[in-house]
Design goal:
- The complex is a heterodimer of chains A (214) and B (881).
- Chain A has a single domain, classed as Alpha-Beta Plaits.
- Helices cover 23% and strands 20% of the residues of chain A.
- Chain A contains seven helices and nine strands.
- In chain A, a hairpin with a 5-residue loop joins β4 and β5.
- The radius of gyration of chain A is 17 Å and the shape is globular.
- Chain A starts with a strand and ends with a strand.
- The model of chain A has no long low-confidence stretch (mean pLDDT 96).
- Chain B is of the alpha/beta class and 881 residues long.
- Helices cover 28% and strands 17% of the residues of chain B.
- Chain B is built from 26 helices and 33 strands.
- In chain B, the strands form ten sheets. A seven-stranded mixed beta sheet of chain B has the order 5-4-25-24-23-6-7.
- Chain B is globular, with a radius of gyration of 27 Å.
- The two termini of chain B are 37 Å apart.
- The relative contact order of chain B is 0.15.
Chain lengths: 214, 881
């Protein structure tokens, strides 16, 4: 069992639904992202293309963030998800530096409306999904949804309640989630059929997130 | 703050965990959504899985982020009265809180007095976002019952829709048109982002467009910028703003005259192509029936177009009918377009002639004229080519003809409302819920055989009688400040606020003595055009009431009273969203789904839903019964469901009746609140209705020949001059005022473009969206072609001023990009707010609208779209970002 994701850039329309729905689901403060859409361009006029990449933690098989963590706060589950135990994280930021994909952040609270206090939504988030300031945070493949869904007999990647929020949110259906180790899973089949690639394979971390580039 | 880790956290007690079905209002797409509410707090929004009105559970960032609006501390919460006596673009209202009673005690006596004296002294305006159908179904009937009021407007329609909706109404019986994603093989887009941005049936289009791309549909995008749409295209073809028509007509020329490809049977039976045209450019009519005549090539005689004995229609030839020499319209069109060579189109548009020839050939061949396909056991014509034009392509003074060209190219190939072709967006034929046969809507033919939209959301019943323009026959003196009594082909107008309004009103006899402005969800000072001109117009109205969510440039600058409105997530239960299917409904063969809106949270503070208050006002002003009759018409309430005289229902109750009337007594509001939406399959003859209905479309623009001379004569007699050559029945291209400015000093064309993250000016106060915009290299910057920028000595981050040839200026940070035409410079969205009451939006982005001129010269003289580009120069303002 190894959870993974496919992001199809042919389908993606750069609508930022993944970035925003994730922020909303996790009550992320301003400037903190688990999912980010970055965009640039390549080529010269008129042979130009935008380069848009929805990015998130790659849940690497050989995760440098896990290797460098001095307190074992960062760890990898058997199903491939890389997680952080915030009770053990001391905020040294070594993992943030070590991640070659720059997907970790040190969390700090700040007001969505600066100078105007925290509103009911933010306060709810602080109570319902609190963060320990100064610790490292990142995408966790919606671990709670997966685990609760599996307990109820749901299939992550097929049943919405057990599927990562960003996958559900995409209006272009550009994201697929499932078990990379299951050759018959939709995600595994699509990776093969579409010749999907990992980003920056030269980092040698073996990401669990694949991209259809063209 | 709690210190629990993510793994070992203790969650607070959960006493409520529920999902509420409703509709989005982040743009006017009205996608179906559901909202997760926990312990009374809405915490997440998703698309409605299982509904076709959306992305089957997906939802764009605008929709997802709507929750932030609910909790924005900058919302208007109470009625307020202005204390700053000064009004002006940069003034602040310094509002004091008052009660609703106090507000009504100011507003209601004025409404009564104005109605008694002269209803035209009341000016009102509203926006299609957040919700078009509230405007159409609730506000418009109210003001119709109130009396002949005056109107102002924001950017909607005059920027984006006057040309588009006019033509797609005539050609498709629909508000808009776009490719049939599921079966289309070749699509051409002209300044349109449906499927890539927002727009009608927003996320549904995104979903279907993505599938089409994956399937291998070729998409060619003509746009000055490689934006969202261009980036996903098979080919992005840079083009100068306002020149799309020239390219399209040259393609029509190639297809008809070089390639000799056209769908003759379609043209003969579904267009006015076979109609005989006399030297006066009008139909030759049968003296007895008054019907337009055609020439039967087998019987060799002229007949009325709908004569059942017709064996075949001539598309070519010289004929004489009742002493009048005439030719079929199609031949005249074919001859007319010859002058639009690809070389001419290249000269005006910069699109290479070779490219135009290639694309035209590819498009025509891809149309597979004559082919058929089986859908659900029904054999249908198959024409897998489609076109789309919207905000960018039609936002020019040649708007109407540009849109005609975009759709004539499909009509000549028979590619309209059949599988794979350009289809109604949203559907123009509904045969109803199988349980009830309702709603029952279909377009029909007028006495000339021309298509009339069968939409039920009209203020008067549509009939097959001699169809006159929307605003009646052209006449002067004008009563409407928008001058649509003269310019009858214009849907919305900018003359209520234009620089030359007084001159035009004086000449055309408009008597305008405004006393009060009622504005709902509109911010024209920021969003219509250059603020100076708009502000002058607003300043002429002594008393201004703004109903809004946030402080705006309009309200802070000019409002006397501000009323706190509800967000669509706070709205009283309504089916108003559902029963304007023409605005948002599942397209093509997607199942029908009908949704409702219900609140996910009760309105906080003293915010009130405008519909509730409108109903009260109708009562107090004494025309509740008349208003009820109009609601009956709008919601098509019949029999026991009709609102009776004397009944005082609220919108929830009206909605309950409408739903039961259409779906059965067991499916009223309670059922919809529980289930969210109803869904049933669409039939092939609903989705692809063209072969089944005997209606035709005017590829020969007869209305312009018919009404043009009258309009011109009336205008000229009053010393009003415009680009009258556009009143030609032959689809043509006309240069815009921008194209007439020499390149010496003002060497660039500045345009604005949509981004998926924003809807007009209303979304720039949403933190999630602003955060994303700041991460995007284009959205909050001015974007110039890389080589052009380098040649001018610019680097990324330079603060530059863009100045139009009229001296209008806007300033902002610059980025260099290869995604822009070398002669263009782009500004995204309607940003650049200066109102301090929106601190998140404050000074984010650049204000493009400053550059727009508002006058007759910059208006399409037929459909009244305004010019949304400007000829500019750019220079450093000093400093660097």
């Amino acid at each position: 069992m190894r959870w993974g994701m496919l992001i199809d850039k042919v389908r993606c329309v750069q609508c930022y639904a993944c970035q925003v729905s994730c922020k909303q689901a996790y009550f992320l403060p301003p400037g903190i992202f688990f999912n980010r859409v970055i965009t640039g361009e390549t080529g010269r006029f008129p042979m130009v293309r935008k380069h848009t990449y929805p990015l998130l933690c790659n849940h690497c098989k050989d995760a440098p963030c896990v290797d460098v963590c001095p307190t074992n706060a960062s760890y990898k589950r058997e199903d491939g998800i890389v997680l952080i135990d915030h009770d053990k994280c001391v905020g040294c930021k070594y993992c943030i530096m070590a991640c070659p994909y720059q997907q970790r952040t040190s969390v700090e609270y700040s007001e969505q409306y600066p100078g105007q206090g925290y509103n009911d939504y933010e306060k709810f988030g602080m109570e319902y999904h609190p963060y320990q300031e100064g610790t490292a945070v990142k995408c966790n493949f919606c671990r709670e949804r997966l685990d609760e869904g599996l307990e109820q007999g749901l299939v992550p990647g097929e049943d919405r309640a057990a599927t990562p929020v960003c996958v559900n949110a995409c209006p272009a259906k550009a994201r697929t989630f499932g078990d990379l180790d299951d050759a018959d899973s939709k995600v595994a089949r699509l990776i093969r059929e579409k010749n999907a690639q990992q980003l920056r394979p030269e980092f040698n971390t073996d990401p669990s997130v694949y991209y259809v580039i063209d | 703050m709690a210190k629990a880790s993510v793994e070992s956290e203790k969650k607070p007690e959960i006493w409520e965990d529920t999902w509420i079905h409703t509709c989005c209002g982040g743009c006017y797409g009205t996608c179906g959504v559901k909202v997760h509410r926990v312990n009374g707090v809405p915490i997440a929004i998703e698309g409605e899985e299982g509904s076709t009105l959306g992305a089957e559970g997906g939802l764009c960032a605008k929709g997802v982020s709507q929750l932030q609006v609910l909790f924005d501390p900058n919302r208007r919460n109470y009625p307020m009265r202005r204390t700053n006596p000064k009004k002006g673009i940069y003034e602040e209202g310094n509002f004091e809180r008052i009660t609703w009673n106090e507000a009504m005690n100011e507003i209601m006596p004025r409404l009564k007095k104005i109605r008694e004296e002269d209803p035209s002294k009341l000016v009102w305006m509203s926006s299609p976002s957040p919700n078009a159908v509230l405007r159409h179904n609730i506000l418009m009937p109210f003001f119709a019952a109130y009396g002949p009021t005056s109107q102002m407007g924001g950017g909607a329609a005059v920027h984006c829709g006057n040309g588009a909706h006019h033509v797609t109404g005539q050609y498709f019986g629909a508000w808009d048109a776009g490719p049939d994603w599921k079966y289309c093989n070749y699509a051409m887009f002209f300044g349109a982002s449906g499927g890539f941005g927002s727009g009608h049936a927003g996320t549904m289009n995104i979903r279907m467009a993505a599938e089409a791309r994956e399937r291998g549909m070729k998409m060619v995008v003509f746009d000055p910028m490689c934006n969202n749409t261009g980036d996903k295209a098979t080919e992005w073809i840079p083009i100068l703003p306002g020149t799309d028509g020239a390219v399209l007509i040259s393609m029509i020329n190639i297809i008809l005259n070089d390639l000799d490809i056209y769908d003759a049977p379609y043209i003969k039976t579904k267009t006015n192509g076979p109609y005989l045209i006399g030297p006066d450019l009008l139909y030759v009519r049968d003296p007895e029936t008054k019907k337009p005549m055609i020439w039967d090539t087998e019987d060799k005689v002229a007949k009325p177009f709908n004569d059942p004995s017709i064996k075949d229609f001539a598309l070519f030839g010289d004929y004489e009918v009742n002493g009048v020499k005439c030719k079929p319209a199609f031949e005249l069109i074919k001859e007319h377009v010859k002058s639009y060579t690809p070389e001419f189109a290249e000269e005006v548009s910069t699109v290479p002639a070779k490219t135009i020839r290639r694309i035209a050939k590819e498009f025509a061949e891809a149309a597979q004229v004559g082919s058929t396909i089986m859908i659900d056991g029904v054999e249908l014509p198959y024409r897998p080519v489609g076109t789309a034009i919207f905000r960018g392509g039609q936002g020019h003074t040649n708007s109407l003809h540009s849109v005609y060209a975009t759709h004539i190219i499909g009509q000549i190939l028979g590619a309209a409302d059949v599988p794979g072709a350009t289809i109604a967006l949203c559907p123009s034929r509904c045969m109803g819920d199988p349980n009830t046969g309702r709603p029952d809507v279909s377009c029909f033919a007028d006495t000339d055989g021309m298509l009339v939209p069968g939409l039920w959301s009209t203020l008067q019943a549509r009939t097959a009688d001699d169809y006159v323009p929307r605003h009646g026959a052209p006449k002067v003196p004008c009563k409407r400040t928008g001058l649509q009594d003269l310019f009858t082909q214009g849907m919305s107008s900018v003359f209520h606020s234009s620089k030359d309004r007084h001159e035009l009103w004086d000449k055309l006899g408009v008597i305008y003595k405004p006393e009060m402005l009622l504005s709902w969800a509109t911010n024209n000072v920021h969003g219509l055009g250059n603020s100076e001109t708009v502000a002058e117009a607003v300043a002429e109205i002594p008393y201004v009431v703004c109903w809004e969510l946030y402080p705006t440039e309009l309200s802070e600058g000019f409002a006397d009273i501000v009323l706190p409105g509800t967000h669509h997530l706070e709205h009283t239960t309504s089916c108003a969203d559902a029963y304007d299917l023409y605005f948002n409904a599942p397209i093509a063969k997607e199942d029908w789904t009908i949704h409702i809106t219900q609140p996910v949270i009760e309105p906080q503070y003293e915010r009130r839903f405008i519909a509730d208050v409108i109903f009260e006002w109708a009562e107090e002003l004494g025309f509740r019964d008349e208003y009820n009759e109009l609601l009956n018409m709008r919601f098509d309430l019949k029999g026991k469901y009709a609102i009776k005289k004397g009944e005082k229902l609220n919108l929830t109750q009206v909605s309950d009746r409408a739903l039961k009337c259409n779906h059965g007594d067991d499916k009223g509001m309670d059922w919809f609140k529980e289930n969210g939406f109803i869904r049933w399959p669409k039939k092939p003859d609903e989705a692809y209705w063209r072969p089944f209905l005997d209606v035709r479309v005017p590829i020969y623009l007869h209305d312009l020949a018919r009404w043009g001379p009258t309009i011109i004569e009336l205008a000229e007699s009053r010393d009003v001059h415009a680009d009258w050559q556009q009143y030609t029945p032959f689809v043509s291209w006309f240069p815009t005022p921008v194209q007439k400015v020499p390149d010496d000093e003002y060497d660039l064309i500045c345009y604005s473009y949509r981004t998926t993250l924003h809807t007009g000016g209303q979304t720039h106060q949403i933190p999630y969206l602003v955060e994303a915009s700041q991460m995007n290299p284009h959205i909050y910057n001015i974007v110039i072609n890389r080589e052009t920028g380098k040649a001018k000595g610019f680097v990324d981050g330079d603060i530059v001023t863009i100045e139009s040839n009229y001296g209008r200026k806007t300033t902002g940070p610059l980025v260099l990009s290869d995604c822009v035409h070398p002669k263009c410079i782009g500004i995204a969205s309607t940003a650049g707010h200066w109102v301090k009451g929106q601190p998140i939006a404050y000074k984010q982005g650049v204000h493009f609208n400053t550059l727009m001129e508002l006058d007759l010269e910059h208006t399409d003289p037929v459909c009244l779209s305004i010019e949304t580009s400007a000829k500019v120069k750019v220079y450093k303002a000093g400093g660097s970002k």
